[in-house]
Sequence to fold (226 residues):
Amino acid sequence: MRPRKKTNLQPRLAACASIIIQNPLEKKGLLRQEFPHPEAPLHLEIGCGKGQFARALAALHPDINFIAMEREPNVAVIATEHALADGLPNLRFLLEDAEKLPLMFQPEELDQIYINFCDPWHKHRQFKRRLTYRGKLEVYLKLLKPGGELHFKTDNYMLYHFSTFEFGAVFPAYFTTKDLHHSQYAQENIMTEYETYFSNLGQPIYSIRAKKPVSAQTPEPSPEKQ
Fold:
């Protein structure tokens, strides 16, 4: 469903310009320079929605730089306004589509990627549009540093089921679960707005975590899958 157009969208986005990365396609490999401490680890959330997850992470980890990506301006404006009010120096926003990631980031530039409650693209012929399609996972894998991680969450079982095969083909998972909120990672889990709403209705949250091997010859040992 397309989000409702916000009143005074462009002036509101302009007011948040200090935390929105401008002209990112002209800054490939230089996006970390947008932060006061560019040497810090760099994490990316793809599809940040209203920004609750990214803002919570940035507040908890001031030693990490976070980029929250959202392609829909009518949603991103809410996230940026809240973030501006929070005054988080380690959080910036990208108003771009995930298809353009290779045009903005260098290989092995990112330390961690988060994909939370993305569009499941229900129709079978749309499978290549899913953010966990293996072609997209290959892109994420290239952008992550050795030892970097990808964390994925969804409330959609069919997307989770599809994703287990896609991860298995490209990016072997060290953790999979059909009930994140009753797993070993429940305590550290930061919930999105969407996740809070549906978990309160009793909907289980599915999750997959994968780590890029430090080297092709010596992959790191992984925790047991759930």
